[in-house]
Amino acid sequence: MTAPVLRPARMWPGDVVRVGAVGLRTRPMRAFLSALGIAIGIAAMVAVVGISSSSRADLDRTLASLGTNLLTVSPGSTLTGEQAQLPTESEAMVSRIAPVREVSSIGLLDEAKVYRTGKVPDTETKGLAAYAARTDLRTATGVELTSGVWLNEATGGFPATVLGATAAERLGIGHAAPDVQVLVGGRWFTVIGILDRAPLAPELDTAALVGWPAAQAQLGFDGHPTTIYTRSQDASVADVQGVLGATANPEAPNEVEVSRPSDALAARKAAGEAFTGLLLGLGAVALLVGGVGVANTMVISVLERRSEIGLRRSLGATRGQIRTQFLCESLLLSALGGAGGALIGAIVTAGYAVYQGWPIVIPAWAVAGGVAATLVIGAVAGLYPAIRASRLSPTEALATT
User: Fold this and answer.
1) CA–CA distance, 102 with 91 (Å, rounded to integer)
2) Predicted pLDDT at 207
3) Model-level pTM?
4) What DSSP character marks residue 116?
5) Where exactly are the structural domains of the chain?
6) Cβ atoms of residues 183 and 125 within 8 Å
7) 75: β partners
8) Residue 298 vs residue 148, higher pLDDT
9) Helix axis angle, 319-356 relative to 261-304, nearest 10°?
10) Which 8-state DSSP code applies to residue 88?
11) Distance separating alpha carbons of residues 364 and 253, to the nearest angstrom
């Protein structure tokens, strides 16, 4: 009669997890510190991606509300390097382009400085500028009023002005009132309104806008526009952009600059994405440091638990089971750090987005990818310690205790 062949007991997945968690429970502080390194890296990556995505979502929302079909025309430079000038009839010529729906313009008043009182030194302009403005400017630019009224056919011929949001702040005017006056070009103008921020026309934020007739009659305005704003059909924006220069100044189209304000916002978005790439690199470095910490913890754990390994081996545990135990422990350690880091990153993203007034956007791929990355790092970091533990013979392990 032959002796029965003894086979090692099979470990089910639940048994592997329980055995792998023993090392974490017996050394909680060490496990916490090791998981913290992983958590910092994952939190940094999730927060960077989340904050960047929330910022882009807010930018897209702003563009959607204001429209991306706004084109601007401004004078460029002549062949001799001097400042060019748009013809006085350029606005009327641009309005004849078929897909153009709305046209308006402003004209810079070079010599007209803006002051709160006559006692302010001439050099302290605070970066404010005076412009002649058409009455349909708000329709073309989409800017809103925070208080007061806008220029109309009646007030456009009188010494009345509407201030941009930044201009009102720098002049110390919190609201438009009939008795509030400012000096524009040495003449007193009554503030009748204050504009809201103009994301697609930032030059209006620091402007004091006066009616076109009043600028010509009282401030010596020559009638040449310095910026023309056009709204076109969405499908024809590119076509209109291609002919605006030649239409605005047929004699010298090379002296005309045509821009799309949303392009500037897109450039800012691209710069934000580049900055996001840099921060993601830093997060990856932090994650790598966390992986090294896990590997170090697992190597020390193997050295400290040689007696446990020897005892398990002497009781019949196979090398594969020992290897699986320590690899599982490393994966659990990394998974705890990854889950904690993803949670921290999500909380940081939500808090910052709420503070900035942005929509909260936390891409699922960032969270899933972060946790998956921790598992890969945990497997790589725990592979060598697991193999080293499995190669210990029972006699060698027990003899060194």
Assistant:
1) 11
2) 94
3) 0.56
4) S
5) 13-63+266-399, 69-259
6) no
7) 256
8) 148
9) 150
10) T
11) 49
